[in-house]
Amino acid sequence: MIQIVLYQSQYEPQLKELLRGFEAEVEHRLRWPFPSAEISPFDDPESLDENDQDDELMEMVEEGAEDALSQINQGNDDCYLALSPEGNVIGFQVTHLYHNQADKHVKAGDLELSRLYVHPDFRKNGIGRMLDQDCLERVKTVDGINRVITFVEKNNSPNIALKRDLGFRKSTGYQDGARVYHFFQRTI
Ligand SMILES: CC(C)(COP(=O)(O)OP(=O)(O)OC[C@H]1O[C@@H](n2cnc3c(N)ncnc32)[C@H](O)[C@@H]1OP(=O)(O)O)[C@@H](O)C(=O)NCCC(=O)NCCS
Questions:
Q1: Domain span including residue 179
Q2: What is the number of domains present in the chain?
């Protein structure tokens, strides 16, 4: 049975490896570990510059994973883990609660689903859905959360299908450099 548990420091090494996977796949469209990388399953993967060096990518992936972990360890972000029956970390979800208005999209009382990841070997088994559903149940019991929001890249069809299925509605688009995101929201 898959269990969803709150992150604790004993899981740090395993979580860090999965955070590297997230950074590689979501930020750089690569399977972790490279160099035997494949392009991720997004519909419309960006092509990588041929001059990109594995070392540079490794560094960016490492930095991204370290930043994410430090936000979790400092208590700025919450993290829940999916554990396999053997007790291994096979997925995670990171959320951030905004206490103040952040920009025109993000208001005080918004809980952002900021990172969701399932190890590629365990996908399509309902684990991503479990992590999201668990979070949506939990927020009902927390005071001060008005809505759940998330930015999903427009070509991330698995995550878009999942969010729509869970009752999220797209309210607007959002562009960050070359990347286009859908802004999804859901009332509690
Ligand atoms: C998005 C992600 C977390 C889904 O995890 P998962 O455990 O494979 O998802 P589930 O098995 O729970 O599937 C839930 C729903 O998602 C959608 N979905 C999942 N994989 C899909 C795919 N390859 N294509 C289309 N829809 C898909 C479906 O609606 C599915 O429901 P269904 O099984 O009833 O059809 C996983 O693909 C992942 O880690 N991707 C890389 C990281 C990422 O893109 N994260 C989101 C951005 S933060």
A1: 3-187
A2: 1
